[in-house]
Amino acid sequence: MEQISTYLPGILLAYSAFLLGVSSPGPNVLAVIGTSMSVSRKAGISLALGVATGSFTWAMLTALGLSAVLATYAAAITVIKIVGGLYLLWLAYKAFKSAASAHDIEARALDGETRSPFGYALRGYIIQMTNPKAALTWIAIIALGLQPGAPVWVAVVIVTGTFLLSIVIHVLYAVAFSTPIMVTLYGKARRYIQATLGAFFAFAGFKLLTSRN
User: Fold this and answer.
1) Which of 1, 9, 42, 79 is the most exposed place for a label (fewest CB within 10 A)?
2) Lowest model confidence (mean pLDDT) among 46-55, 117-126, 147-156
3) Quick check: pTM over 0.70?
4) In angstroms, rounded to a whole number, what is the distance separating the alpha carbons of residues 31 and 120?
5) Are the C-beta atoms of 123 and 44 separated by less than 8 Å?
6) How far is residue 58's CA from residue 161's CA, in Å, rounded to a whole number?
7) 83 vs 91: CA distance, rounded Å
8) Using CA atoms, how far apart are residues 92 and 105, in angstroms rounded to an integer?
């Protein structure tokens, strides 16, 4: 029980970073929204499942990679935390910039002909796996929750939990934004959402950079 309480704050912080990160639409989320609106809810859900699977792949690769690095080079945690912390601060800057902008989200369907459900899922997976920011995002998330010397179950809990969250959130996007009114509602609340995200990313980045663990 004591061991769980030791690692639980970091796990919850990693979950929070992931959850709020998904709340800030990037290319993958906008593709899900646009596909649900322009093609169908079913196509959007298929694309969402592909994105979630890609997210799981990135999480697993990052967790395994960082665990291996930390097991061999304990000092590497300092470099990892600096990279992750600076990236979170950059996300905070982007979120505050978006909050100050009058520019709304641009959601559109994927180019090309209509695909099968598997085709949309495969495209969603490719979109997520070829996203150049995904590696930095997952380094930051895993670094928040994975302390040096942490047992394997901590990485398993982080990866499994974020995968389940990814499925739920991306599918919710697909279902909710299959009606255009949701884009309008999100647009009205966008600035407040982005400002909140900016504050959290700034807090998480500062915490990661100043952590002594």
Assistant:
1) 1
2) 147-156
3) yes
4) 10
5) no
6) 13
7) 12
8) 18
